[in-house]
Amino acid sequence: MHGPITVLPILSKLLEKHICDHLCDFPEENALLHRFQSGVRKFHSTGTALIRLVDQLLFDLDKSKVSGLVFIDYKKAFDLIHHGLLLEKLKAYGHSTVDIYADDTTLSLSSDMTNGLTVMSSALQQDLDDVSRWSAANKMVTNAVKTKCLLVTGKRISFKLDNCSLELKLANSDKEQVDSQKLLGVTIDKHLSFDVRVEELCKKLSQRIAVLRKIRRFIPIEQRTLYCNAMIKQVMLYGSTIWSNCSADY
């Protein structure tokens, strides 16, 4: 079963395009978006968000700093947007409708090894508490189970740390600290080696190449090329600017 397709009149399409362009330009012109917000912005994408974050992590590692990350997950983020609060904000912005929400939120903080992880944990916990209060005020529900934390140390610095644990809480529950976490489709690991990402990618590509080998005798070269570009090349190149410095073994 397929959902119904809405066929809009020509005038409605033109009006929709005009309103969309106007609403997309308004937040930029009035500096309403956070400077690190990469969603729903021109010349921004998941790639620019990942590049900025990973570049900062690498920069901190070069300065012998470790970085703590908290990957915040929301329950049914788009479904739980409170219409009353949204209309109040739109009224304050001078608009009738706008959608500038993005539900992928990552907290990050770097610290010298001399300060230990206590100061970092305390600062991240304060930020996490601020997020919790903002979420409650805006009728959003954080998913405490899926919210994870990650300590990026690199291979060189990790051997110098006696304690590699971040003690964080959300909704009165301790946050699980993981060795790797997927963000915007790319898995980031604590050493920034991207070995996990490449292993996942090789497995996915192997399956798709196997399908191509089975069907190649039954379809013309044009369709094989189309399959390769859509199902293999796009997957292989996504985020390659981030993980291209992975281990030489790959």
SSE topology sketch:
Elements: H1 10-29, H2 46-62, E1 65-72, H3 83-93, E2 105-112, H4 116-137, E3 148-152, H5 154-158, E4 169-170, E5 173-174, E6 176-177, E7 180-183, E8 186-189, H6 195-215, H7 221-237, H8 240-243
Parallel strand pairs: 3-6
Antiparallel strand pairs: 1-2, 1-3, 4-5, 7-8
GO molecular function: RNA-directed DNA polymerase activity
Keywords: Nucleotidyltransferase, RNA-directed DNA polymerase, Transferase
Protein name: RNA-directed DNA polymerase from mobile element jockey
Structural notes for this entry:
With 250 residues, the protein is an alpha+beta fold. Helices cover 47% and strands 14% of the residues. The longest helix has 22 residues. The protein starts with 9 loop residues before the first helix and ends in a 7-residue tail after the last helix. About 4% of the residues have low confidence. GO terms for molecular function: RNA-directed DNA polymerase activity. Keywords: Nucleotidyltransferase, RNA-directed DNA polymerase, Transferase. This is RNA-directed DNA polymerase from mobile element jockey.
Task: Describe, in short, the structure shown.
The chain has 8 helices and 8 strands. It has 250 residues and is an alpha+beta fold.
Q: Terminal Cα separation, in Å? A: 43 Å
Computed CA radius of gyration, to the nearest angstrom: 22 Å
Major sheet description: 4 strands, mixed
Count of individual beta strands: 8
Average pLDDT confidence is: 76
Give, in spatial order, the strands making up the sheet with the most strands.
2-1-3-6
Question: Quaternary status of these chains?
Answer: single chain
Shape: globular
Please state the structural category: alpha+beta
What share of the residues lie within helices? 40-55%
Count of helical regions: 8
The CATH class of the largest domain: Alpha Beta
Total domains = 2
CATH fold-type name of the largest domain: Alpha-Beta Plaits
Poorly predicted runs: 94-102
CATH architecture identity of the largest domain = 2-Layer Sandwich
**What fraction of residues sit in β-strands?**
5-15%
Order of helices and strands: HHEHEHEHEEEEEHHH
